[in-house]
């Protein structure tokens, strides 16, 4: 017996743990809390029941393939909740899982699979990675199956993790269920973890920290918050994930933790840090307000063996702590004899965390797992960690370094011998020595090679890449005629090698000129990668890796205020490309932009999708343009140019299908863009035919579900005269996009004509990135902005009904007819002078004039119009085609002011409405409680559009291009007013609904508007209501007789059932769907859908379910028009023909019937 | 100088290890009768320790 007072030793407390397998315990937890969330990744959540049922499905499939306890099954899957299902499935089958990370070094993965005797690989990437490996069967995730008991026992292996081996071969550590269960019990006791745990699921499955991430929550009834690959690779996304998932507990390496901000993550109450030395500075920054524990442990002792709380008072080197419960630690000399307390020695660990050993490596196991001569536990073993430590006076253990040639790079254990063995395998390499040296981005590996003309970096990288993990690849190489040898021992002189590494030349000097951005990026690159880059320097070849990328991105953000995505460094890898990206990058403000997002609908797109579903055709939401091209047109080059645009702007390749009333975006791969040429050269009246076809093309009915959302047609009028017509659905386009489209088309057409490939670099951000950014912005600002809107619009009228010529149709129609007026020269001058004097825009003056006109038309002095705001607030979206438009209410109050005063009000209003983008129109409509009315657009019936003051021009090389007017295909508003400038003078164009207004009325109105604006601008300091009181003419002030009514809706066709008890079957059905969609226990048959929590998207969900349940061609409009259960049921049961509903129904039916890939129809296509 | 001598030892779970020939055997460990240099002992273990499962686990499955 050894006296513990005189030797360096420490002991953890005794703590019993369940004698069961991981699989048993997870199944038991699922039986206790089946509906609790077990795994979450953003919107994907798995309950315990789902997890276990689906895992049982995989377990059954594995058993069918003969998998038994003691077998090993590979796990190869993306970082989605399915990965957890796969892991639990393998465990439930009684087998041990072996992580085989998709995308890892191919040769290495296959060697591991062979070494582990793997014949089945499970997971969603199994087929892709191992499908062609002989003797290996890939198994995806089958459906759920009934749970069968796990046939494994606690002493059987649960997983085998492969770590770097000094002889050049990875070694597999056999960890049992007992090891893992005991560890989870111990760490839960240590950290106070319980069922409320939401763990940080960040570790790669191949690292044993994943045991902590997954099994601590799953054994306690908590929830794994599993990070996907992208969220894991970028510090900003990581922080966003942790905050959004309210992570409470988790293990992280100090390098990654250093990139996060503690103030942003207050929910993270228990923070375990380790895997490499934890700097005291980091502890000081993070420990206040939370528990901060150091965590130390080799895989061989199961995750953590030594741990303890750290505080801001701890100094470098901070202690790693004390043994976990049931564990013991000894500090020994080279002969395994204990050293006195305070002296340095090798750390030995004993306890139930000790793995069985190394798979198929008995000798190596015997060397590292040695008899325990100290304890009272006969026959037990101790693991030799190879780590040098000493015990501080307070008993805590302090880590000092390695006793052997094992190093850690970015938290990964690496045997330098393995790297040397692999590099030596290249036929061009004679001798190799690899050293780990401090580098600018943490520890880095430097390889020394002979002969002096040993293969270059690229060759070596290509050779070693499939055999080594990225952390094991040398960051630098030094080629020598001979390796230095110690004159005394005759052995390799490693200190001399290290000196050589320091002396090895670095590239170019840091002060290589360029603008301030380039100079700053060069400085950061040099600091983090250790060498000053040239324009062609490659990030990876310069030793860059994911951690260096994260640090570089963080530094660019902190020091340059620019937001660049880490993936840029792996796609456009040169220094010059990075500088370009930084120049184009958005300023890093509070609105965090992430890039590389999958297709995601933005809130305005969802709104537009809903309105598109409601309208009888997509025409009111089309944007149509046409240009006459004189000269020789190269249609092949045009096609190539259009394709180049669609490749760069993926939103042009989106489809928007829906399930259950919820729309979503799907991105199609780029294909050639069809450019049909319609030959009109033989037509009797080509111009008339052209006009008809342009109108038809502009009114083309896009089906967003099948896509594509745009079409291009060329009309040939003569050999060298063509008209290029483009129609795009507004859901993927806006006025700003038009200018982008023309620019890119012009450049790509020129290049294609010259036989050159497209030259534009990929965009810094995509429309999906906007959608994600916007959703986050709206989430953050939504409540405050909505409060502003409701206060701003309090008491405002929600209907603007201008004198008209016909009764308002019961169901809104979307017809549109155009008219225009231009100010006289004198009026234009007066307007511009007034705008200049009041410090505002021509548009604000025109809006004030329009407001005064409205007062004279309606007799009211308070009106709400709509305005258009472009939500292009980040520079990163400057070049992105897409729908960035919000319609916002504009409140125009007229009474008691001079015109100058009105202009000031309008200028302030136009500014204010752009400042509250977090609450889109539909939320404002809901919050104001505006009643739904099928006869008009809610809240905004008149739109005042001040965008596109100067229309963009298309220019194509070798062609004379002039715009051709295309009739607006329709209008979602009663009247849309466009402020325009034509031939140097301001004016307005309007699109009005001819079902409401006669052309004569609108023309008179416009003429009088122009005159009134001129008069007001000429006399801005007189009371506005006294200027030109004769305007407008009486004919436009007075409605046609009987026109200010709403046409009667069709009478109900079925008698309404009486009495609350007599629910018809249809009513039962509808009420059930309402309850489900609205999440209410009950709904009354006469409750109005929109009064009890219904909104647009809920309506879409009801529509989808009702359509499915009844098999009927309902329209969403039906639901709008019959907003109670009773009325809707009566309508359904009555179901007579109503033309406007029948049209929408036909469209809905056509939508369902059309095959997914059918191209849109084109007018008169030859 | 002669290389240190080791013994191949085994516990009741039939797990193998090596122990310095100069030191007392820890409790619960038995000499298998094989002695040699470190490398010789480890090489020997590579040939004799064919089932690395602890005996209790092995027997539970048989």
Automatic annotation (TrEMBL), chain B:
Organism superkingdom: Bacteria
Family matches, as InterPro entries: MbtH-like_dom (IPR005153), MbtH-like_sf (IPR038020), MLP_fam (IPR037407)
SUPFAM superfamilies hit by this protein: MbtH-like
One of the Pfam families matching this protein, by short name: MbtH
Residue ranges annotated for the MbtH-like domain, each copy included: 1-47
Coiled-coil segments on the chain, per record: none
PANTHER family: ENTEROBACTIN BIOSYNTHESIS PROTEIN YBDZ
Name of the protein: MbtH family NRPS accessory protein
Organism of origin: Micromonospora fulviviridis
Lineage, uppermost ranks: Bacteria, Bacillati, Actinomycetota, Actinomycetes, Micromonosporales
């Amino acid at each position: 017996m050894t006296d513990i007072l005189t030797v360096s030793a420490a002991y953890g407390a005794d703590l019993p743990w369940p004698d069961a397998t991981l699989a048993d315990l997870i199944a038991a937890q699922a039986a206790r809390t089946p509906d609790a969330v077990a795994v979450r990744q953003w919107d994907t959540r798995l309950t315990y029941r789902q997890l276990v049922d689906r895992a049982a499905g995989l377990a059954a499939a594995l058993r069918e393939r003969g998998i038994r306890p003691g077998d090993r099954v590979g796990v190869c899957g993306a970082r989605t909740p399915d990965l957890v299902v796969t892991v639990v499935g393998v465990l439930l089958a009684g087998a041990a899982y072996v992580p085989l990370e998709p995308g890892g070094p191919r040769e290495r993965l296959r060697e591991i699979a062979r070494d582990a005797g793997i014949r089945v690989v499970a997971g969603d990437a199994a087929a892709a990675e191992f499908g062609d490996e002989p003797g290996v069967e890939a198994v995806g995730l089958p459906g759920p199956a009934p749970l069968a008991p796990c046939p494994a026992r606690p002493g059987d292996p649960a997983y085998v993790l492969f770590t770097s081996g000094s002889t050049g071969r990875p070694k597999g550590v056999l960890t049992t269920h007992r090891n893992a269960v005991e560890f989870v019990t111990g760490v839960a006791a240590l950290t106070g973890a319980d069922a409320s745990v939401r763990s940080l699921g960040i570790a790669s499955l191949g690292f044993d920290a994943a045991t902590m991430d997954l099994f601590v929550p799953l054994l306690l009834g908590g929830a794994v918050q599993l990070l996907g690959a992208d969220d894991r690779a970028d510090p900003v996304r990581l922080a966003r994930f942790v905050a959004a998932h309210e992570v409470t507990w988790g293990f992280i390496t100090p390098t990654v933790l250093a990139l996060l901000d503690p103030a942003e993550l207050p929910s993270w109450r228990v923070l375990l840090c380790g895997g490499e030395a934890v700097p005291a500075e980091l502890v000081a920054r993070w420990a206040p307000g939370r528990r901060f524990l150091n965590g130390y442990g080799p895989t061989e002792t199961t995750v953590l063996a030594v741990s303890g709380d750290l505080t801001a008072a701890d100094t470098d080197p901070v202690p790693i702590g004390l043994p976990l419960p049931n564990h013991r630690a000894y500090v020994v000399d080279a002969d395994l004899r204990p050293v006195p307390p305070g002296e340095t020695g090798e750390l030995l660990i004993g306890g139930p965390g000790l793995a069985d050993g190394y798979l198929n490596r008995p000798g190596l196991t015997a060397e590292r797992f040695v008899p325990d001569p100290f304890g009272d536990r006969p026959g037990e073993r101790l693991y030799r960690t190879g780590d040098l430590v000493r015990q501080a006076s307070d008993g805590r253990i302090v880590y000092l370094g390695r006793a052997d040639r094992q190093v850690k790079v970015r938290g990964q254990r690496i045997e330098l011998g393995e790297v040397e063995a692999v590099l030596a395998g290249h036929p061009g390499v004679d001798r190799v020595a690899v050293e780990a040296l401090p580098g600018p981005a943490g520890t880095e590996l430097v390889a020394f090679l002979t002969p002096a003309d040993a293969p270059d970096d690229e060759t070596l990288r290509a050779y070693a890449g499939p055999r080594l993990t990225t952390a094991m690849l040398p960051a630098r190489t030094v080629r020598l005629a001979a390796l230095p040898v110690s004159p005394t021992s005759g052995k390799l002189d490693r200190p001399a090698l290290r000196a050589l590494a320091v002396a090895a030349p670095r590239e170019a000097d840091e002060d290589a000129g360029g603008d301030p951005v380039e100079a700053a990026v060069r400085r950061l690159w040099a600091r983090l990668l250790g060498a000053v880059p040239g324009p062609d320097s490659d990030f990876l070849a310069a030793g860059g890796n994911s951690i260096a990328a994260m640090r570089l991105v963080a530094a660019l953000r902190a020091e340059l205020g620019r937001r660049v995505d880490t993936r840029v460094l792996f796609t456009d890898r040169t220094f010059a490309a990075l500088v370009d990206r930084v120049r184009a990058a958005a300023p890093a403000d509070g609105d965090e932009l992430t890039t590389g997002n999958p297709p995601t609908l933005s809130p305005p797109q969802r709104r537009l999708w809903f309105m598109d579903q409601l309208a009888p055709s997509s025409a009111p939401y089309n944007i149509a343009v046409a240009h006459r091209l004189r000269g020789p047109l190269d249609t092949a080059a045009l096609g190539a140019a259009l394709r180049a645009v669609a490749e760069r702007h993926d939103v042009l390749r989106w489809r928007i299908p829906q399930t259950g009333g919820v729309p979503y975006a799907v991105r199609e791969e780029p294909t050639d863009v069809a450019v049909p040429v319609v030959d009109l050269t033989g037509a009797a009246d080509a111009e008339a035919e052209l006009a008809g076809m342009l109108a038809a093309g502009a009114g083309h009915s896009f089906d967003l579900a099948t896509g594509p959302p745009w079409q291009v047609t060329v009309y040939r009028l003569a050999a060298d005269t063509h008209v290029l017509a483009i129609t795009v659905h507004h859901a993927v386009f806006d006025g700003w996009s038009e200018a982008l489209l023309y620019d890119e088309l012009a450049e790509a057409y020129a290049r294609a004509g010259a036989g050159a490939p497209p030259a534009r670099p990929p965009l810094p951000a995509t429309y999906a990135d906007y959608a994600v950014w916007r959703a986050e912005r709206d989430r953050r600002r939504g409540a405050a902005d909505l409060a502003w809107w409701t206060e701003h619009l309090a008491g405002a009228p929600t209907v603007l009904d201008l004198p008209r010529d016909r009764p308002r149709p019961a169901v809104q129609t979307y017809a549109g007819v155009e008219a225009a007026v231009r100010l006289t020269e004198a009026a234009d001058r007066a307007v511009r002078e007034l705008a200049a004097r009041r410090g505002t825009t021509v548009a604000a003056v025109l809006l004030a004039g329009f407001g005064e006109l409205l007062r004279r038309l309606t007799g009211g002095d308070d009106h709400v119009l709509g305005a258009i705001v472009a939500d292009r607030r980040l520079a990163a979206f400057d070049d992105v085609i897409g729908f960035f438009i919000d319609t916002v209410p504009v409140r125009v109050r007229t009474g008691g002011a001079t015109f100058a005063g009105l202009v000031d009000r309008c200028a302030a209003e136009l500014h204010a409405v752009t400042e509250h983008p977090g609450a889109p129109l539909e939320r404002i409509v809901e919050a104001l409680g505006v009643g739904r009315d099928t006869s008009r657009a809610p809240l905004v019936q008149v739109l005042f559009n001040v965008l596109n003051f100067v229309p963009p021009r298309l220019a194509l090389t070798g062609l004379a291009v002039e715009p051709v007017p295309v009739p607006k295909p329709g209008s979602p508003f009663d009247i849309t007013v466009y402020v325009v400038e034509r031939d140097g003078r301001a004016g307005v164009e309007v699109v009005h609904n001819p079902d409401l207004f006669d052309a004569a009325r609108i023309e008179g109105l416009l003429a009088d508007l122009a005159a009134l604006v001129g008069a007001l601008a000429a006399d801005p300091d007189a009371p506005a209501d006294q200027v030109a009181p004769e305007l407008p003419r009486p004919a436009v002030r007075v409605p046609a007789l009987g026109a200010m009514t709403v046409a009667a809706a069709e009478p109900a066709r079925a008698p309404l059932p009486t009495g609350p008890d007599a629910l018809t079957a249809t009513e039962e059905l509808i009420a059930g769907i309402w309850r489900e969609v609205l999440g209410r226990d009950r709904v009354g048959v006469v409750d109005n859908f929109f009064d009890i929590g219904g909104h647009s998207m809920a309506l879409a969900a009801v529509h989808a379910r009702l359509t499915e349940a009844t098999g009927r061609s309902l329209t969403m409009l039906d639901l709008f028009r019959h907003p109670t259960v009773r009325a809707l049921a009566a309508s359904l049961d009555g179901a007579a023909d109503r033309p406007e509903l029948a049209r929408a129904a036909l469209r809905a039916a056509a939508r369902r019937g059309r095959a997914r890939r059918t191209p849109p129809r084109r007018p008169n296509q030859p | 100088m002669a290389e240190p001598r080791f013994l191949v030892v085994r516990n009741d779970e039939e797990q193998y290890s090596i122990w310095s020939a100069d030191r007392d055997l820890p409790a619960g460990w038995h000499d298998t009768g094989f002695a040699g240099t470190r490398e010789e002992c480890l090489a020997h273990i590579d040939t004799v320790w064919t089932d690395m499962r602890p005996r209790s686990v092995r027997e539970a499955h048989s």
